[in-house]
Amino acid sequence: MAGKFHINRSGIVCVLAETKKQSTVAKNRSQLAKHQDKLKLESIKVQVDDLKEKQSRAKKKLINLDEQKKRLKNWDYSIQQDEDWNDRLEKSDLPDDYAQIAERAYTKDLSKALTPLSQEEYNTQKQEYYRTRSQGIPYVHKPSSEKLESVINHVKAKDERTLRKINKNKIRNSLSGGDTNYINDKNKQFNEKLNRHYK
């Protein structure tokens, strides 16, 4: 044992009371530290709960203020105007980004190019698929020549339309006397006005 000791009359080694005192003081300090940590945690939890409650009250106030603002703003409109506006919002259903726009255009294009299958064609293709699958042969779909022709004609017509637009723009630009491609006519007029002013 570390610390001071002495031998009493009977020859037994005794640890002095100081070492006992030190060990009890150390235990008390550790217990006190644990108790203080618990109190700190509890006070922090109470503070967090108070902050959450204050935050929820503030959110409710903001929501109420926003609703009141909307009500005051809507007092300026008639019932008919409000109904028209709501109808317009429902009809618009605008896409969120360019990917959705491209997807809609693609599906619209496909629906024009491809005619849907009749129930008989669908059933025959389904039976053919299951028959070849049960034999272990991979199923290869071969579309009819009419469907291939309709898709090819649709793609050609689309390409012709885009070429006509490009040629029309080239002719318009050559008549204006420049190689500049304008975004629209207003931009072209503005640029010509600037050229007149600064020449």
From TrEMBL:
Q: Where along the chain is composition biased (Basic and acidic residues)?
A: 185-199
Q: Which GO terms describe its cellular component?
A: catalytic step 2 spliceosome; post-mRNA release spliceosomal complex; Prp19 complex
> Where are the compositionally biased (Polar residues) regions?
175-184
Which keywords does this chain's UniProt record carry? Coiled coil, mRNA processing, mRNA splicing, Nucleus, Spliceosome
Keyword Coiled coil assigned to the entry: answer is yes
The subcellular localization recorded is: Nucleus
Q: Which residues form a coiled coil?
A: 34-71
Superkingdom, taxonomy of origin: Eukaryota
Q: Which Pfam families match?
A: SYF2
This protein's assembly is summarised as: May be part of a spliceosome complex.
Q: What is this protein called?
A: Pre-mRNA-splicing factor SYF2
Q: Which organism is it from?
A: Komagataella phaffii (strain ATCC 76273 / CBS 7435 / CECT 11047 / NRRL Y-11430 / Wegner 21-1) (Yeast)
